[in-house]
Amino acid sequence: MIKPIMRDIFFLNQKSEPATKADQQVAVDLQDTLKANEEQCVGMAANMIGVKKNMIIVNMGNGFLGSANVVMMNPVILKKSGPYEAEEGCLSLSGTRKTTRYQEIEVQYEDIHWNRQKEKFTGWTAQIIQHEIDHCNGIII
């Protein structure tokens, strides 16, 4: 189901709770909502649709069958390297803001089937993941 985008700063500043298998519908709602906003959004955290759960979705770019949106439950950055200054926008906020991001990150998470994953990401994809994990931690740019 496509959900409205949360713009309440007080809500967005709250740390998310761990996602569980009972939150599977939230993953579906994130997929639907990102798809509906894909022209202006490349990633989303569950709190952006009003659900305080540690879950994100990231557009990993165009795959063979179209855009590859990956849901990550309970993502944690294990390692990061190569800090740089970035300017980012957010669907929940107006305008852009400067922030520090890292060129390479290693993330541990559960996938849509609740299998534990550990992957390295670089560049633009790493930046999106960092932004969305910040959302889960109550950090907004």
Describe this protein's structure:
- The protein has 3 helices and 5 strands; from the N terminus they run ααβββββα.
- It is an alpha+beta fold and 141 residues long.
- β4 and β5 form a beta hairpin.
- The longest helix is centred in the C-terminal third of the chain and has 14 residues.
- It is globular and about 35 Å long.
- The two termini are 27 Å apart.
- The mean pLDDT is 94.
Quick take:
This protein has 141 residues and is of the alpha+beta class. It is built from three helices and five strands; from the N terminus they run ααβββββα.
Our count of helices gives 3
* Proportion of residues in β-strands: 35-45%
CATH architectural designation: Alpha-Beta Complex
Number of strands: 5
- Give the biggest sheet: 5 strands, antiparallel
- Strand order in the sheet with the most strands: 1-2-3-4-5
Structural class: alpha+beta
Principal-axis shape equals globular
Low-confidence stretches: none
- What's the CATH class label? Alpha Beta
Query: How confident is the prediction overall: mean pLDDT?
Result: 94
**H/E series, N to C?**
HHEEEEEH
Estimate the helix proportion, in percent: 10-25%
In the CATH hierarchy, the third-tier topology is known as: Peptide Deformylase
